[in-house]
Amino acid sequence: MLVYFCGCGTVFYAYGVFVPSIIGEYGWSSTVVSGAFSLFFLLGGLAGPLIGASIVRFGPRVNIIIGNALAAFGLAGLYFATQPWHLYLFFGVLVGLGIGFGLFAATTAVANNWFIRRRSLAMALTVASGGLGGLAFPPLIALLISATGWHAAWLVLAAIQLVLAVVVGGVLLIRDRPEDLGQLPDGMAAGVVLDRAAPSPVYHTPVDWDAKQAMRRRTTWLLVILGAANIFALNMMTVHQVKYLVDIEIDPVVAATAFGLLPGMSILGRLGFGALAGRIEPRYLATICLAIQAVAVIILMNATSLPLVYLYSVLFGICYGGLILAHPTMIGAYYGRAHYAQILGWLLPIVTVIGAIAAPLAGAVHDATNTYTLAFVVVIAFCALGAVCAFWARPPKPQ
Hints:
The chain has 16 helices and no strands. By secondary structure, the protein is mainly alpha-helical.
């Protein structure tokens, strides 16, 4: 949780806070500055197979330490940024690869290793900490920029990343597996045989699958569509929501406030999904979340008053938070602990590329039609497709 909180706060939710200051000082276009974030996003996903193989080979703890150290180095390098290529090198490449190797796949692999029966709750607490990072760091960063300038603010974030994520989280606290300490998953006492086949409200695989077996199952590709639908919808709406609200004559401050509800509400979605997924099959919860996401976008398209705008933000935020958890939870439950990171690593590039298309697609549609209507219809259709795939993503049968 500490590593995930730190990585999301110093990186994912941080970059946008720096963008106005960077543009204001150097006069670079928003396209050039935001391109570094796109590179960061793509690299972290496209390196998925290497990330998964590295976690399987060296363990998540080594990846957390080295990956976050690389990210801290990249953040520190931004202190010296005076040319656009500096942003692309330090943030896009170094931070992108560092966070890719050291954050989502690695931290959820730790949770997946330590828990079986309470896996969904452990995953929920882990990813919910990212939402907390999104709430805590942006105002802190804004204060740092106003007090020290944006160059020095990157150095402070690099120090936070190095101390909290690398030293405290990676070196001092995290261990890869409970077996490394003579323990068993879910806090079982040493010497007690863990019966994975005991009655449970939700499915947990009785065997560990390898990546080759998993990639041959239809369920795996249904999970890909499930994850891609959520990331596609999330990327499009988060990038263009404020612009859409301003276009329909919503005050910019109010529009930004409505947008700020998304990460806050996502915490409720992550925790709620984790609590319920121990009692209800996650595929049913994912189906409901994707269906509600589609309804939320329909509400936004027809919003004529502020209460409807806020209703959209609450519904969409809760559901995207739950769906962030659905993907790793279902992979762990369906395919086990041994090759979790490798399987997730092979799926990430597909999900990432589809998600990366969303924002520029919406921008192109708006430029061509002067409206977001068609782009939002695509989001609704994608969410509906994802809901169908989630419903049919039954646990695969071991051979």
